[in-house]
Specification:
By secondary structure, the chain is of the alpha+beta class. Helices cover 41% and strands 14% of the residues. Helix 2 packs parallel to helix 4, helix 2 runs parallel beside helix 11 and helix 6 runs antiparallel to helix 7.
């Protein structure tokens, strides 16, 4: 297939994945929830559900499902989020039982996973001209108590990362309660946009200024790096926010930042191509996702923590790079489809592969957040639909204004 046809097939496969792995039983309390991974179809991810809400926008716009179906699924999902899903002060539990919407075991109430879900809520409300969707979305967004996770430390205003009230709960080490903090540059930028609409403007600006801007140089240009350097950190906010047309209050170009760090991630793979058979000019991308050893989070330089490459290529990480390095991403997409058919299935590309182990390993799994990110980035590359819908919504425009982002 030619590249354009491949992208459309991947988009169709992505929508089919969300249709097949979202609870669409109208009699279920978990209606609208999407699986974390095809490995455990009984477990839903609140973040994957946010990507699913954006999938219905793409499916509707492209005529992949009837508009009325997209409206009904979106209304039902928002109803589930508002009335059925476990939350603490509006922050959703990270993992849920697919059929009930209730918190899985003692998992944490996650700020970033809630934010990913809310990005889907914002996108759906901005796209569908529907009074019920607007009403439900507004209630979900207003319920989140952002001030609950704000705190001061070392003269900086920051967000807590998560909350878990249960002793021996997930990520609890000692007394239950707040877990860690967003003190680094990572995937959380969307949280500052969402919170800006619900807290004091001065606090909102202090929060955005409160995380570290650890810097490095790529191709002679300054970049802001995350500690570990996985690709997804530079992609999740940018999957919704049209960063190409805005500079942040300090003049940071987050779009170019992602572009440069994508190139650096690829170069890191090329530097280790002699050690790992998977890496090459058309086979690169180190991120988080499936691996021969289960779920793995890996990164590339530049980073604060020395990365340890293991030969696993995150397919969705490279596909999600399409708007930033289109020629390189398209070459890899064609290479995988033509030369590694094991990477392709009913829903398009699987999550990852690794030729450096014996025997060579090809993932047969799909993670909702991974497939969701690559789906949004393909649509943004082809049409700009999600960028335009989300970024131009009054909700996000107001947040950008409060924080001091400048259009260019």
């Amino acid at each position: 297939m030619d590249p354009d046809s491949l992208l459309l097939c991947e988009l169709q496969g992505s929508v089919d994945f969300f249709l097949d792995y979202t609870n669409l039983d109208v009699n279920s309390p978990g209606y609208g929830l999407t699986v974390d991974s095809t490995k455990k179809p009984e477990i839903a991810s609140i973040a994957a559900t946010g990507f699913a809400l954006s999938a219905w926008v793409i499916a509707c716009e492209r005529g992949l499902i009837p508009r009325q179906n997209a409206l009904e699924i979106t209304r039902g999902t928002l109803n589930t989020l508002l009335y059925n899903v476990s939350h603490h002060r509006g922050f959703f539990a990270h993992f849920l039982y697919m059929n009930t919407g209730q918190r899985r075991n003692k998992c944490e109430y996650s700020t970033i996973d809630t934010a990913l879900c809310l990005n889907g809520v914002i996108t759906a409300a901005a796209y569908f001209d529907d009074a019920r969707i607007q009403e439900l979305a507004q209630a979900i967004l207003e319920r989140v108590d952002w001030n609950f996770i704000v705190f001061e430390t070392d003269g900086q205003t920051r967000f807590r990362m998560a909350y878990n009230p249960d002793r021996q709960g997930d990520y609890v080490d000692g007394d239950p309660g707040f877990i860690s903090q967003w003190d680094m540059a990572a995937e959380q930028k969307m949280m500052y946009l969402q919170a800006a609409n619900h807290i004091a403007p001065d606090t909102a600006r202090k929060l955005y200024a409160g995380f570290r801007r650890d810097a490095a140089t790529v191709d002679g240009q300054k970049v802001i790096i995350s500690p570990g350097g996985p690709l997804f950190i530079y992609q999740f906010t940018e999957a919704w926010l049209d960063a190409a047309h805005y500079l942040d209050p300090d003049g940071i170009d987050w779009f170019n930042n992602t572009r440069l760090l994508t190139l650096a991630n690829r170069e890191f793979c090329l530097q280790h191509a002699d050690e790992f058979a998977t890496y090459g000019e058309n086979s690169w991308g180190i991120s988080a996702g499936d691996s021969p050893w289960g779920y793995d989070v890996s990164g590339a330089t530049p980073s604060l923590i020395e990365p340890k490459p293991n030969g696993t290529v995150s397919i969705y990480g490279a596909v999600s790079s399409l708007p930033f390095v289109p020629e390189l991403a398209l070459q890899m997409i064609e290479h995988l489809h033509n030369d590694h058919p094991q990477t392709w299935g009913k829903y398009g590309f699987y999550d990852a592969y690794n030729l450096s182990v014996n025997p060579p390993w090809y993932s047969q799994a799909i993670y909702g957040i991974d497939k969701g990110c690559s789906m949004l980035m393909i649509e943004n590359y082809v049409s700009g639909l999600i960028w335009n819908t989300y970024t131009n919504s009054p909700y996000i425009q107001n947040a950008l204004d409060i924080l001091g982002f400048q259009k260019r």
